Amino acid sequence: MSEPVRSRSLPRNNTFSQATETVLREMVLDGTIAPGARLNEVSIAAQLGISRGPLREAIQRLSSEGLLTVISHRGAFVRTFSRQDIVELYELRCALELHAVRLACERATDEDLDELDAMLSDTESRIRESSAHAYPQELDFHLRLVLVAGNQALMRAAQDVQRQLALARSMSAKRPMRARAAVIEHADLVAVLRSRDVEQATLMMSRHLDHSMHSALSVLGLPQDGATEESDTAPDSE
């Protein structure tokens, strides 16, 4: 199945290769190219006004990020996710973010934590004002926390995992409903970070991500393997 064509233009503040990669990633994550669909290289290249060379470079990059699956002699397809895929992504996310919490306990300044609290206040206001009560995707608490940890390699790995989970969530038409609960859990975590209690902070993050995983499985209609479901929908940013 070919993806729907929508007008796109390359951003001007990046190199040509980076711009192509950025736009193609957006097309995958916002559902312009649906999960499981094959990428029509001719159509996409014509739409973006580029040759197929930089497009193929972008495809390889997104494949390495886990967003595309490249099959020899068949082409590139937007990735789909099984229950095991989701569980493994959350296992990786847990390893990354628990380490980020440990680093944040050591490295975060009081000003860093004040900024996290301010972002959560803004998030809560945005959720309250939103008709869908959805977590604003641009205010990603978890990536901001990894940023505070001060490790760029950790940030790159966390971004790759977050993108794959965002793509997995896009497979469901259900809307997120657990956003307010996520904000409360985030705020509780920041309070513990202020006390520099590594053991308690990692315990809270582990429980939070466990809740998030079960919600993600639920919204995607995947088996919980005997676990209690937190809700029938998943948060945008947990």
Provide structural commentary.
The protein folds into two domains: 63 residues, Arc Repressor Mutant, subunit A (Orthogonal Bundle), CATH 1.10.10; 137 residues, Four Helix Bundle (Hemerythrin (Met), subunit A) (Up-down Bundle), CATH 1.20.120.530. It has a two-stranded antiparallel sheet. It has 238 residues and is mainly α. The N terminus and C terminus are likely disordered.
What secondary-structure arrangement, pairings included, does this model have?
Elements: H1 16-29, H2 41-48, H3 52-64, E1 68-71, E2 75-78, H4 83-107, H5 110-129, H6 141-149, H7 152-169, H8 179-195, H9 198-219
Antiparallel strand pairs: 1-2
Helix pairs in contact: 1-3, 4-6, 4-7, 4-9, 5-6, 5-8, 8-9
Structure in a nutshell:
The protein is mainly α and 238 residues long.
Observed structural traits:
238 residues, mainly alpha, Arc Repressor Mutant, subunit A, Four Helix Bundle (Hemerythrin (Met), subunit A), two-stranded antiparallel ribbon, 61% helix, globular, disordered N terminus, disordered C terminus
